[in-house]
Amino acid sequence: MVLKTAKEVLKIEANAISKLIKRLDESFIKAVDILFYCRGRVVVTGIGKSGWIGNKIAATFASTGTPAFFLHPAEGGHGDIGMVMKNDVMLAISNSGETREINDLLPPIKRLGIKLISMTGNLKSLLAKESDVTLDVRVDKEACPLGLAPTASTTAALAMGDALAISLLKKRGFKKEDYAFFHPGGQLGKKLLLKVDHLMHRGEELPLIHSNDSMKEALLEITSKKLGVTTVVNGKGKLCGIITDGDLRRALEKHQDLLLKKAGEIMTTNPKIIKASSLAVEALQVMEKYSITSLVILDKKNMPEGVIHLHDILKTGIV
Q: Which of 69, 201, 249, 297 is in the most buried spot, having the most CB atoms within 10 Å?
């Protein structure tokens, strides 16, 4: 019984969305053009379940390159209409098209002279008549067996909102780098925006010794900088190698007088490097490929500029 009901709900809502496809016409193109050429913000409004759908649509617009916010129509009638500006566009959602709180906003909207796009299931409603463009989101029936709870109608409105947002995204030439810009706190944003330059240790934090320094000095540098590695430079200050704690362990097995040896005798030559402008996720990929935990960053003169450690990347939550 439960599965039968669930399947019926999904069939009704899938059918509602499927029928939207057949109704797409010049009105949809006009709506996209109005939104695309809007010089202000898209003000999405709706009340009840349509309000929750409106909130989601506004959030989708905002995260995909179309400035938008949600205006509660009841609050709009009590002062919040002041947030609406002349260059804005309003997108109103009402299945009946006769929602009093939304219709009460129509006079001030008209006085402001802004474009009004509506999504409604009643093309003969006041909202539809007052709109510059009306998108038909009517459904044959709700998934609710009582025909009361907004179900298929809100699903249809949500799908139409997504169609608008994605059509705008493509029309704007919106790229994943743009999406990441609006999601800097998310994993995708970090992968596409966070660079080695943001995470590397530099200045006094950079472990550095000269090739003629003793291994005792190398050990002290590795220990004090707490990165498990030190860069090694030649007389001209250019990178000639690195010494890791792994190198130290291996050298201890070979040399009883290790601390008396020069860093240049123990160092690993040709260490893996990466550019400061590279993405942090690219640094992680190099580390994984070569099973290492540190990379060196060089300046234009091939002098060590910084070191990035595996832990620096993992702390960001990039993976």
A: 297
Q: What angle do CA 211, 212, 216 make, to 5 degrees?
A: 95
Side chain identity, residue 59: A
Contact by Cβ (8 Å): 268, 275: no
Q: What are phi and psi of 71, to 5 degrees?
A: -115, 120
- Is 201 annotated as ligand-binding? no
Planar angle of CA 249, 251, 252, nearest 5 degrees: 65
- Full set of structural domains in the chain with CATH: 2-174 (3.40.50.10490), 196-314 (3.10.580.10)
Alpha-helical segments (H) within 70-151: 73-76, 100-103, 106-112, 126-130
The pLDDT tens digits of the residues spanning 5-50 come to: 999 999 999 999 999 999 999 999 999 999 999 999 999 999 999 9
pLDDT tens by residue, 151-199 = 999 999 999 999 999 999 888 886 666 555 554 555 555 555 678 898 8
Q: Mean pLDDT over residues 86-113, rounded?
A: 94
Give the ranges where the chain is alpha helix by DSSP (H): 2-23, 26-36, 49-63, 73-76, 100-103, 106-112, 126-130, 152-172, 176-181, 187-193, 196-199, 215-225, 245-254, 263-266, 280-290, 310-314
CB-based contact 73:103 (threshold 8 Å): no
What is residue 82's DSSP assignment? G
Amino acid at 26: E
Nearest Cα residue to 76 out of 97, 100, 50: 100
Query: What is the pTM for the complete model shown?
Result: 0.66
C-alpha distances in Å from residue 315, one per residue of 192, 193, 310: 16, 15, 9
* Single-letter amino acid code for the residue at 168: L
The closest of 211, 206, 267, 272 to 236, measured between CA atoms, is 211
3-state DSSP percent of the chain in helix, strand and coil, to 5: 50, 15, 35
Of the candidates 288, 220, 286, the residue with the CA atom closest to the CA atom of residue 296: 286
